[in-house]
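User: hey, got a sec? need Putative signaling protein folded
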Amino acid sequence: TKGSGRNGYHFFEASMNTNAHNQLQLIQDLRHALKHGEFRLHYQPKHNAPDNSIIGVEALLRWQHPTRGLLAPADFIAVAEKTGLIVPIGDWVLDEACRQMREWRDQGYTNWKMSVNLSAVQFTNGHLTDHVAATLKKYELPPQSLMLEVTESTAMQDVEASMTILTELAVLGVDISIDDFGTGYSSLLYLKRLPACELKIDRGFIKNLAQNADDASIVSAIVALGHSLNLNIVAEGVETEKQQALLKSLGCDTLQGYLLGRPMEPSQLMRQMKNAAWL
Ligand code: C2E
Ligand code: CA
Ligand code: CA
Ligand code: CA
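Assistant: Yep! Here you go:
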């Protein structure tokens, strides 16, 4: 009825204001966070499938919010991207990941690769390659120790622009990983031309792998396709031993997931490494 519609309208308007207010607060908080060093990186290991050894880590962004506690990217990345704040945040992520890598290399973890996620906004922002080169130089890191993860849909947004940037990065010597693979719409021709060395199968295909024969067929097809293009195949979101066994038998090269290791603070990861060394 008209009456309730009117009430509905007022209710809607009030909630819009609350959302707008929350967003403004979030933007302010994000600026504050950058200035006052509230961001953190957690690291999730990437394991060699045959023997479970750690071949690298993926840096995952966290925000130690002064009142809301530790926040995950889902709580703030979208707003950071919309406002462009993801560019300075992403610069901080790359710097901090490389600083940490330097520290670990000095402790003897010289064969680990550091994977860093890039958002579409950073990807199309002109200074990415220069910033990557400068950061590698700052921490005296070999380019091969860095892997940049770009989602399939980011890479597909503007194919020619992506090709240019990815080629620049590849010439620099850093590795490229195509993240969330299978959720975008890459053409085979394009995939063949991409200077990538890794495909990460999206967690959506791993989740019900043990129950769903279609998912197993898809994983198997991605492995065959990827291997024919000389790409390393990673399965992410591995949570059960059954999934692990299946993924190994389907030929995945690298496994990542809560079963093998959660994203951890550097100190926790180091504790785990030291304990493992005693086994
Ligand atoms: P992603 O790159 O696909 O990262 C994998 C996500 O899955 C991470 O969530 C990780 O914590 C989670 N995960 C890992 N293993 C498992 C598992 O076994 N089960 C389940 N259910 N989840 C698992 P997180 O850390 O919340 O990050 C979410 C997304 O935020 C990332 O997805 C990535 O797209 C984005 N992100 C994270 N850090 C950064 C960053 O530094 N920069 C940018 N631009 N994006 C980031
Ligand atoms: Ca990733
Ligand atoms: Ca992913
Ligand atoms: Ca994802």
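Quick note: Residues 2-36 form the longest helix (35 residues). Let me know if you need anything else on Putative signaling protein.
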